[in-house]
Amino acid sequence: FHGSSTWSKLLVVVAASSGGGLVAYADAKADLGLVPSQATEKKKVLVVGTGWAGTSFLKTLDASMYNVQVISPRNYFAFTPLLPSVTCGTVEPRSIVEPVRNILRKKGGMIKFWEAECYKIDQVNKKVHCRSDIGTNLDGHGEFTVDYDYLIIAVGAKPNTFNTPGVVENCHFLKEVEDAQRIRRSVMTCFERANLPNISEEERKKNLHFIIIGGGPTGVEFAAELHDFVAEDLSKLYPHIKNLVSISLIEAGDHILTMFDKRITKFAEEKFQRDGIEVKTNFRVVKVSDKAIFMTNPATGEISVPYGMAVWSTGIGTRPVILDFMKQVGQGNRRVLATDEWLRVLGCDDVYALGDCATISQRKVMEDISAIFRLADKDNSGTLTVKEIKDVLADICERYPQVSLYLKSKQMKNFLDLLKDSEGNHVKESKELDIEEFKKALANVDSKVKMLPATAQVAAQQGNYLARCFNKMKICEEHPEGPLRIRGTGRHRFHPFRYKHFGQFAPLGGEQTAAQLPGDWISIGHSTQWLWYSVYASKQVSWRTRFLVVSDWMKRFIFGRDSSCI
Ligand code: FAD
């Protein structure tokens, strides 16, 4: 799991005297004395972020083994997959959040939480600099530093605007609970404004034009939610302006939902067409002003479209604190913080990164794949039999699902063709093949393999995996024999992180959902919507939020959505 020297360090008992200043205000006036004295003997684990990755780490971690502290600017966990439902009042914001302190209470009160933002990581002195918005009138202006032995970075990502002018000033994002609440108010404001007397029809139409930029799962789901809100609730409340409403979905690529199977993309595009949601593909937004969105298309050139409300949902970018940290650890030329398959940040010790803020380095994965081939070639002949190659590929696919997806794809046909003769027949399993040919094909895989998706599923599995590794450290110290190292010599204490894909949903409105489940099994329609309800109810972090979410759904079925502009 870790370099052996690092892990052996883990068991070195920290001298009790080193505990002073575990948590210290920046001016170092006093040790807060918040950490029990016996806890100073335990290693300090600092978790930054209480989203999917951080919370799943904390839930699984055996907190009695470490001195655990948590920092996050929000004192709750948010169930992000239901954020689009919050934008239209299908679900209330408080139903999808769980206070961090409720989660920590279940860990026996052993974990400390500070509501603050980490603005700098000092990996040389193993300190994290924090500032708290709620503490600006306190001594030290709410700034303090926290020491760590192990740092778990789980700060997520920020919306990516691609530096498009006017986006930050004029568009909504849909990333946080506050964003969803703002969108809900803004939708109602647009309706009330369009309803005012003495305004032109053109002005009413402009106010009721809702534009969503980005045809990924979030943009599509929000468009569908908004359409349902208008069709099922607002059209009854604003009958005289209901025909002036328009919803447009702008996508730079050829299609929406490109990460899904083509059948889902086709179904979604056709359904949106039937619902009157205008899908504009191959349009790239170049500027946003307070009145119009400017976009280009190879056929039309630049056009401007007036709008009432715009939501920007084109993917995620790296947070400033991570960009600064990347420079410190020699990753300044990368876009995303890179880790190895054990989630250790490349270029520094004792720091782990998981969830949306990091990615497993593809270069390391490719080195491993190359090494797997090398190890399989036990007699160094430079050849492997077809059967051995198939075993190697199966091993690779099991370790790296992202490669597995690629191997199954059509682009990978050339690679698999190497297992066939010139007439296209499968060659005998005992036939020897040149490994170099496969290595050449692998160079191609390197540039094509997609990184793990930035999803809650990946983040939660990573948090769970890392906590299990931390829990097993002591046992592994006593029984060090683990999986063989692929790179270098010796053995690892733990298996690398392996992602298990359980499928993905795309709610499309009108009580219809599309699902792409493992084994490329596709399911679309009303029954899949019920599957969606059951999965999302079961995935809630507590019985409290489960109850609240289900009762919100029932309330909506019975009374419709609330249209008040609070
Ligand atoms: P987050 O969950 O974003 O958590 C980051 C945490 O870090 C937060 O607690 C934040 O307050 C904290 N933080 C931020 N900055 C700092 C700082 N400087 N210092 C300290 N703490 C900080 N995924 C799915 O799998 N399925 C879905 O259906 C799905 N739907 C989605 C719908 C929407 C609208 C959105 C926005 C995302 C959706 N996702 C979905 C993606 C999923 O939410 C993310 O992949 C997931 O939240 C990533 O988890 P994380 O822990 O890395 O980051």
From TrEMBL:
GO terms of molecular function:
calcium ion binding; NADH dehydrogenase (quinone) (non-electrogenic) activity
Keyword presence, Transit peptide: yes
Q: Pfam families, from UniProt?
A: NDH2_C, Pyr_redox_2
The record's annotation in SUPFAM superfamilies points to:
EF-hand (SSF47473), FAD/NAD(P)-binding domain (SSF51905)
Reactions listed under catalytic activity: a quinone + NADH + H(+) = a quinol + NAD(+); a ubiquinone + NADH + H(+) = a ubiquinol + NAD(+)
What Gene Ontology cellular component terms go with this record? Answer: mitochondrial inner membrane; peroxisome
Entry EC no(s) = 1.6.5.9
Whether Electron transport counts among this entry's keywords is no
- PANTHER family (alphabetical): NADH DEHYDROGENASE (PTHR43706), NADH:UBIQUINONE REDUCTASE (NON-ELECTROGENIC) (PTHR43706:SF23)
**Family note:** Belongs to the NADH dehydrogenase family.
What is the protein name stated in its UniProt record? NADH:ubiquinone reductase (non-electrogenic)
